[in-house]
Amino acid sequence: MKIAAFCRRHCLYLAWFVSVIAVAGSLYLSEVLKYEPCKLCWFQRIFMYPQLILLGIATYRNDKKIIPYVLPLSLIGGCISIYHYAEQKIPALSKVLPCTIGVPCNKDYLNYFGFITVPLLALIAFALIAILLWTGRKEDTVE
Question: Any coiled-coil ranges, and where (predicted)?
Answer without folding.
Answer: none
